[in-house]
Specification:
The complex is a heterodimer of chains A (about 190) and B (about 425). Chain A has three helices and twelve strands. By secondary structure, chain A is an alpha+beta fold. Chain A is globular. Chain B is mainly alpha-helical and about 425 residues long. The chains are: A alpha+beta (about 190), B mainly alpha (about 425).
Chain lengths: ~190, ~425
């Protein structure tokens, strides 16, 4: 033990400070690298946004996004499932090309193209007190899009008029990231990899 | 090792030496000790490390102002700066802080080096938030806090920084509370971080780290109590009572260890435990959400914690063979009984919980005497604090008859005066 202590004592302190900085920089970089991987390798899906609670609009610097796929059928899930639990939602394209949630699962399940598996967390569930319900709300981490200050309002107005859609990249294990923001079908924000 | 910064401890050491110097001069003048003896006592002390002087304080202020100016400049031009450049600015902020820390440490300025590492850890937290914003990352607040806590803890270990440890434990406590609230489940992940914090407190033998680790441990209890609703209701005071009792029991047991650093950590933990226990006990009698045993007992892991607290305190008493430590056992047993058998403010039975009131008063009295006999002043203060709180709770309880409570308090007071009289007579007999 003493030898280990002596060895550590011989290392310059600058090396310890450098190691601390490298670890923190790496952790921040990993956040971005993970998203880059999703954008690069993920399958593109177009998700229709919908109007959300008017009390939650006009954030100014980001747009709050609500999706049709946020409402997920609960069939097949156990009754003790709780708010905050991770779920894997199977989504499938409708006739108009946008996606709808068809089922939810507690672990990843196999999907057949054009179905996509999307990972999310249960936001609201009415299981328990009333013995269950048919649908629940799920969040996918795609519910905020930061824009330059002041530019959010016009997008929020378009969103509430049902003119905003989001193109998301989804990996095979269900992780997702916003790739493009569309207004009236035309891209207004396109996310570069970095 | 980069783990021996004289923070906190040096302040007390300096005060002690000043007092000792005055005493030595007086004893020498009175002829109690010879000048050679005074010199021999002085020579046993190592020279004190340089403290924070005025120049250091001004330098800290200057550094903070420059950092604030930099942040304001970046914030003012944030949207005009290209995203990759913004990202690099954040990473450079982290790197720059630790570079400054290494340089200051090399120049023998441990306080400034510690502050640089602390600033680095704070910039790291800001970088996590801003990166999440820039890259539209999913809004996992608790996950971000966990990442912050882990990175800051790495800095605390590597740079030996008390400030980074504070950042890590604070972020960790918030992470625990947020995740517990989100999942409505007790989260044990934070405990790993807490154990690392406690390990550092022992390895550094630092008062600051001891206080931080003890506070973080109670923070875990508070976060869990606030975040998770057991059944339909919160049981904040109940959880705090269990957490405080366990801290007191574990702390007393650790305080019996022969290793100085472990014993000191145990003493600090037991003090925080005593305060939490006293506050929770007093508050529980006015808590409308604290429910009767029948419902509470279902939280069986809390029952286990309460039993463990008593067992640890008993073990500490047997190992140390100190009456003061031994008196912590009845303090815990009586206090926990008072909480566990609490019938609730809306008990519907019509009667008042005299047993609970009496047990709580006796528990706090035992805590005061325990602190007195162990010569641990903070425990005495915690006991008095608890006594005052319990009496106030009994007096101001909204439900029940005020007249009956007046009689109860009068009888309890009369018994206490009677016991005091008996003890005085006993002491005179022993002295005779």
């Amino acid at each position: 033990m003493n030898r280990v202590g002596e060895m550590i004592a011989r290392i310059p302190k600058a090396a310890f400070y450098s190691a601390a900085a490298v670890i923190q920089v790496l952790l921040v970089f990993l956040m971005v690298a993970d998203r880059m991987q999703v954008l690069r390798n993920g399958t593109e899906v177009t998700l229709q946004t919908r109007a959300i609670d008017p009390r939650d609009i006009l954030r100014g610097d980001y747009v709050a996004l609500g999706y049709d796929i946020a409402s997920v059928p609960t069939a097949g899930l156990s009754y003790d499932i709780r708010r905050g639990a991770t779920v894997f939602v199977k989504i499938a394209p409708k006739a108009d090309g946008s996606y709808e949630a068809t089922s939810a699962h507690l672990s990843p399940v196999a999907v057949v193209a054009p179905e996509i598996l999307l990972r999310g967390r249960i936001q609201v569930t009415c299981f328990g007190a009333r013995g269950g319900c048919e649908r629940m709300n799920v969040r996918y981490g795609l519910e905020r899009y930061f824009v330059p200050q002041g530019e959010g309002r016009k997008i929020e107005s378009a969103r509430n008029a049902g003119r905003v859609a989001v193109v998301a990249a989804v990996t095979s294990n269900g992780r997702s990231a916003i790739k493009r923001l569309l207004v009236d079908g035309k891209p207004v924000y396109d996310e570069p990899l970095f | 090792l980069p783990w021996h910064l004289p923070l906190g401890g040096a302040v007390f050491e300096r005060a002690y030496r000043q007092r000792l110097e005055v005493d030595l001069a007086r004893w020498q003048a009175d002829g109690v000790i010879a000048p050679t003896a005074a010199e021999a006592i002085r020579s046993t002390f190592r020279p004190l490390p340089a403290g924070i002087d005025v120049a250091t304080v001004v330098a800290i202020l200057g550094g903070l102002l420059v950092a604030a100016a930099f942040l304001a400049f970046v914030a003012a031009n944030w949207t005009e700066i290209a995203r990759p450049l913004r990202f690099l600015i954040l990473l450079a902020g982290i790197g720059g802080s630790y570079t400054a820390g290494a340089i200051l440490d090399r120049r023998g300025r441990p306080y400034l080096a510690d502050i640089s590492a602390t600033v680095g850890s704070i910039v790291f937290g800001a970088a996590i938030a801003l990166t999440g914003q820039m890259y539209h990352l999913g809004e996992d607040f608790a996950g971000g806090m966990a990442l912050w806590a882990i990175g800051a803890m790495a800095a605390a270990i590597l740079a030996g920084s008390r400030g980074a440890l504070a950042v890590a434990l604070l972020a960790g406590v918030i992470w625990n509370g947020a995740r517990a609230e989100q999942l409505q489940e007790v989260q044990l992940s934070f405990l790993a971080l807490g154990f690392v914090g406690a390990g550092l407190a022992v390895a550094w033998n630092s008062p600051v780290a001891r206080h931080l680790a003890s506070l973080a441990w109670l923070g875990w209890w508070a976060g869990t109590a606030l975040g998770v609703r057991f059944g339909a209701f919160s049981e904040f005071t109940f959880l705090l009572a269990c957490g405080g009792s366990l801290s007191l029991g574990v702390g007393l047991l650790l305080a019996t260890r022969p290793e100085d650093a472990v014993a000191r950590f145990g003493l600090t933990l037991s003090t925080y435990g005593a305060f939490a226990f006293a506050v929770a006990l007093a508050a529980s009698f006015t808590d409308p959400e604290l429910h009767p045993t029948a419902r509470i007992i279902q939280i069986d892991w809390l029952t286990l914690c309460a039993v463990a607290a008593v067992v640890f305190a008993l073990a500490a008493a047997l190992i140390s063979r100190r009456i003061g430590t031994g008196l912590a056992v009845p303090a815990l047993v009586l206090g926990l009984l008072a909480v566990f058998t609490w019938p609730g403010l809306d008990n519907g039975a019509g009667g008042e919980p005299w047993f609970n009131y009496g047990a709580a008063l006796l528990a706090m009295l035992c805590l005061v005497v325990s602190g007195m006999l162990d010569d641990v002043r903070p425990r005495v203060v915690a006991g008095w604090f608890g006594l005052a709180g319990v009496i106030a709770s009994i007096t101001w309880a909204v439900k029940g008859s005020l007249l009956r409570r007046a009689v109860f308090l009068a009888v309890a007071g009369a018994i206490a005066i009677g016991v005091a009289h008996l003890l005085t007579r006993l002491r005179h007999k022993v002295e005779a």
